[in-house]
# Entry
Amino acid sequence: MPEPLSLDTVRHVAHLARLKLDDDQLEDCRSQLAMVLDHVGRLNDLDLKDVEPLAHPTQLFNHLDEDVVGPSLSVEQILDLAPVTEAPYIVVPKVIDNESA
Amino acid sequence: MLETESLNQIVNAVKRGERSAREIVRECLDRIDVLDGDLSSFRETYPDEAIAVAEAIDRRIASGEDPGPLAGVPIALKDNIVTDYGRTSCGSLMLESYRSPFTSTAVERLQQAGAIIIGKTNCDEFAMGSSTEHCAFAITRNPWDLSRVPGGSSGGSATAVTSGLCLAALGSDTGGSVRQPAAFCGVVGVKPSYGRVSRYGLVAFGSSLDQIGPITRNVADSAAILQVIAGADRRDSTCADIHVADYQERLDAPISDLRIGVPRQYLGDRNDQEVNRVINDAIGVFRDLGAEIIEIDLPLTEYGVATYYVIAPAEASGNLARFDGVRYGRRAEMNRDDNLHDLYARNRGEGFGPEVRRRIMLGTFVLSAGYYEDYYRRALQARRLIKEEFDSVFEQCHAIIGPTAPSPAFTIGEKQDALSMYLCDVYTAITNIAGHCAISIPAGFAGVDGRQLPVGLHIQCKSFDEETMFRIARLFEANTDHHLQRPPTAFSPTAS
# Structure
């Protein structure tokens, strides 16, 4: 198993997960995750050589639908759900910064 | 009388016109008003909608129609199962005022069968927890002892059923979230086989693990509910197109040469001694009824929690990525210079509670570059071994039995660190890893600090053999009276 969980690693993971956490929250995650990962370490005791990973418990096959238009939500319903809107748009911060624009 | 009646009694009384659906709904709402202040099982109720549906059912009966097999049955929904009225909050500030534009398949089927949706029940945030303490809005309490947790994450549903605030409830079970609260509250909880019930409209947590399941006061009621909600659904491609047996017709039919496996790993030192005593007594009941009890070996039991707490958080981190505060859900206060990344990170940092943040972090970590092979891939390999181990045991016996949880209900605030809470799932999470079905039924009572607390008997059967699972559970129930015991909180002089 890799080295123990550092605060820098936890900070990096928070960035990947798009979670803004303060230092106390990062430390809570670090200590709690370290305990859980220590327990998870017991998976190293298993002989997993040549074992195929299993992502799903049952044998399932795709069933394809006919490609026909069915009922869907209206623009109004979708705008109703969004927290900040300027009909018929959902408002978000600027995505392209000035320099690259 | 709602606290003692069975589903069939209610349906028959309603269909014969002896009781009106309206009067049953009214009784439910009154009981909630009087009793739920102490229990906090409900997030919200739907009095107007429920009464209107009940009156429509009464009119249909008066005009000679059959409103369906669940006519007049008041049902509560866990707060992560969507309906196109009311809110669905998943116990989270992120979705505090979220209103779904559509209804889940399971609920549509209940409604078509004549059931009446009473309200939504509290749960751990996004169904992540084993105590219902991790809910943004309330801490639900165990009806048997208000200082204890009801279990989780479907704790509100289990509490409401136990206290007769509804006749049945739906929960969701990703690692034990239906069965463990059912065990802690002394009621019946079912985790159907993966693919048995449509997940359409269940807010996703672990997509290869989640199943919706009923919580009721007896086995026949659970069988009646599962009968209605089970079966293929074109809106969930993981929902299996496999025949649904008539669970109720042969519920009391004996099983010839019944063989029950007891794993040597299920009754050891990790359990509370009282739990072991109750489960040993339950095994004795089966033996006295002529079942052959065989000792079996499930050595991978020790690896279930480790495997689960890699796979479930990994799937959760992907599923919860959709909560970005853009299209729906909570939007945090923004600073002028915030960019899109800031918006996501701030919404999610503030909208998710501590346990959800931890699981997203854990899941993101085990999937991240440099750790994927060591954690996630390894857990998926262990998953195959676990599934094969169960497959081979199910060739030797009809069912595997043991305790649902290693202890009875613990006190509120008792489990402070994440790992100690996760270890509560030792017997249940491994079922979801392998995908087969399981039920928790009242096994008896443990004496703890001068109080009697319910203990759950966990009965696991092979995938898509819910029929056998119900029959074995019913056999035990028909020869015991634990399921008839009600907590003192279910009886209030003003509520009866």
